[in-house]
Amino acid sequence: MINYILYSAVEMNVLQQNKSSSSAEAIIGLIKDNGNKIIFSQKARERIKTVLDNLDLTGDILNDAAHPIIKSTANGLVFSKEGNTLKLSNPQPDNVKEESYIKLGALANAATIEMEVSAQVKSASYTANACIDIRTADGLNRLIIVQRAAGTYTIEVFQGGQSKGTTTLAGSGISTPYTIRVRLADGILSFYRVKDGVESSCGTFDVKPYFDLTKASVLDSFSAFCGARLNTGESVSISKAEQYQETEESCYADIYKNGAKVYTKSFSVFGENPPYSVRLKVNGNTLNISRFKDNKETYIATIDIKDYFNFLDNNTIEEISVYEGARLGAGESISVSKLTNTAESPEALPDKITFN
User: Fold this and answer.
1) Counting beta carbons within 10 angstroms of the beta carbon of residue 261, is it exposed (0 to 12), middle (13 to 18) or buried (19 or more)?
2) Which of 76, 82, 120 is CA-nearest to residue 102?
3) In 3D, which of 28, 23, 25 has the Cα closest to residue 12?
């Protein structure tokens, strides 16, 4: 506990945060007494994954009406099941390139599309393209993300049936098995490749000059497909494909007045792995909350507290102290360093406090 001083910033430094069945919450509070307090809780980092669409390769995916197969060329590709893998192949003779896709689902904002490629067999004259195709129903507007066997990773834009160019995301090839990962947020696509569990960033692409996917009417006109563009004798095998969203209720604030909870709000800011610090600062009658990791600040929230506490009143300030603590489930523990205050030297406390 330390005393609070008006316009000061107080910080709690979280060194370790070990969760099990609960959330292992680190807590910092501006407290008058147990019935009158402002507390901020930071949960241990845990992202919640919600799958929107997936290809169930354990079932009869080839006859699933929710996942139709479309051809982008005259003959298209042959789709076959090999165990829990979907194989796309081109048996046409004479070096004829064919292209086909299977629908994953409607495109969603703040979502990630993943396609895991388990095998990719190329010919001497082509590159066995594994593709994610984001397209409108008429096929005239497309964003085609392509990973070539032992070749480049690219995105090509078609608008009104006309190619608007190809952008190279990665110039080097990648061996199977690997995963193509594409995230859409606010009209911008972010690209990744995953190999042996390690994600590598391959840049971003602003789609808005072509299609404003921030508008619901535009977004709703696009769907995501998985497929391939293959020359004679080539094949691509897909072992997993899904579209999902990740959320994280990582932190929240509660205000108590005369024993009653009068304010509560959670903030959709992804958590951090320790060590990190949480900073509270009252400016007049607003409370600013931010978090620091590797000397970088993440803004969390600004809360208007004038209806609950008058921090411009010296009598109120004299009654407020700053505490740090934890809310833990069985087997959980948190270690924090002593509180710091920019307006005064910390009182004599242990350099490290462990809650368990």
Assistant:
1) exposed
2) 76
3) 28
Q: Which residues contact 33 (CB under 8 A, 6 or more apart)?
A: none
List residues bridging with 283 in a β-sheet.
Answer: 286
Q: List all residues 6 or more positions away from 190 whose beta carbon is below 8 Å from its beta carbon.
A: 182, 183, 201, 203, 204
Residues in the chain: 356
CA–CA separation, 120 and 199 (whole Å): 20
Q: Which two tokens stand for residue 144?
A: 């085609």
Question: In which element (H, E) is residue 319 found?
Answer: helix 314-319
Q: Quick check: 330 and 30 in contact, CB under 8 A?
A: no
Tell me: the pLDDT tens digits for 183-230?
A: 998 899 999 999 999 999 999 999 999 999 999 999 999 999 999 999
Residue pLDDT, tens place only, 152-179: 999 999 999 999 999 999 998 999 999 9
Q: pLDDT digit string (tens) for 259-279?
A: 999 999 988 666 778 999 999
Q: What is the C-alpha to C-alpha distance for residues 270 and 176, in angstroms, rounded to an integer?
A: 31
Q: Which domains does the chain have, with CATH numbers?
A: 2-47+248-355 (2.60.120.200), 49-246 (2.60.120.200)
Element housing 167 (H / E): strand 162-170
pTM of structure: 0.65
Buried b (16+ CB within 10 A) or exposed e, 163-191: eeeeeebbeeebebbbbbbbbbeebebeb
DSSP structural state of residue 6: T
